[in-house]
Every structure is written in structure tokens, then in C-alpha cells.
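pinging the channel bc i need a second pair of eyes. not urgent but kinda urgent?? the chain im working w is below, pasted from the shared doc
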Amino acid sequence: MASFNTLTIQFRRRFSKQEVLETVYQSAYEVLCKLPQPWGLDGVPMKSLPNYQGQISTGVSYTKQLKASPIKNFGIGFFNRNRRDEPPDESSYDDTMTVGFYVKKVDQNWKYLFSEVFPTYIQAFKPYVGELTEDRIFSSDIGSRNFDTGEIYRNPDFIDSRQGVCRIWPVNYWDRELCHKAFQLTPGEIVNRLAGKVAECREFENGVLLIYSYEPPTVEQILQINPELMPILRD
């Protein structure tokens, strides 16, 4: 059993000022409705986006309240389109979708979560990157904080997700542009290199879907993925 209580699926998407935000949101909601609860929004009324005039971003939460649900939080956030110019090419300006869930409540549905739910989220949100993350590892990749002094240490090895791949997680999606930035490879070339080395790796939605294993991950397993797969992709 994994030595943590919560895992989080995170997606990030680049936005354009030319997008109609309500259209993007409506399209995502309609695809999410194809999934039954608790992972999807089938039968869940669509929530209105709050007015974000003058704010950096807006978003909605579809967090389930039932105790039996594995969902801890389910949120979609959109960066403000009312800008005079395009923002920098940095992940802090991304649209985001995050789904946190309790490990012990997934039961025997891990393969369904990885091979059915995760790809549907990609189709709904159209991200450039998607990952199944563990909070402590994710935070340590970015850096750490000295709570006595308040000083923040930035990990010099951290790579912004707009520019590359810092860590390969148990489940991943990279679009074609990110595949090139991170590895100078096409999605097809990544599939060929990882054939037979992971549970699933295939071209998907103009990118690559990589599933390391269908089993529930452990901290130890997550930490071993980078040294095992990065040399294959960066050789």
C-alpha cells in the first residue's frame, strides 16, 4: 500500500486571448459529463464561472461531499483573458485542472482511473501536460522552505512545465510541443523508445500518454521512475 493518503492528478493548459472562456469551459464540462461520478460530472449541474473582472484568475470547484467518494477536491481554474498582451511562457499563467483523491478509497479501480479516467480528462481539458503527482515529492522538486527563517530554497534542477519535464510520474501526458522541448523527440519516437518498458505508452491527442504501471504507486516506485526512464528519453 502506498505510504501516503492523497494523490493529485494535475493538468495545465496554455491559453490564448482569442479563446472564448465560456466556450472552453462548456466544452470541458460536456466531456467530463461522459464519465460517471465520482470521477466525472455525469448528472452534476454545470456551475457558473465567477466574474473575474480585475482578478488574476477564476474557477469552479466540483468537489464531492459524499464520504464514500475517493475525491478530495476537483477544481478547474482559468487565467484571466482580459490582458493587454500575451503573458510570459511560464506555467504560472496556465489554466489548471486538479483532482485530488484518497488512495485507500480507490479500491480495485486503479487501471480504470489510469487508462479510462485520465485520458478522458485530457480530452476534456486539452492540456499540454498532465501528471499523477504526490504532494511532498512535487513540492521538493520545486524547492523547500525554512519555517524558522521563512527563507525559500529554490531547487536549481527544477524545470518549469512549459519548458520541459522535471519528473516522470506514474501517469503522464505531454503534448507534441512539450515532447520536443523536453526530449527533442516526437510522440511517436517516445512511444518507440519506451515500448515494452512501461505498462502503456501510446500516441494520444497529438501527444503521448505514458502509464508506468497499473498498480497503485508507492513513494519508492515514484522515485525510481526518473533514473529508470530519463536516460532512455534523453540519450
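so The radius of gyration is 18 Å. and The mean pLDDT is 89. — does that match what u expected or am i reading it wrong
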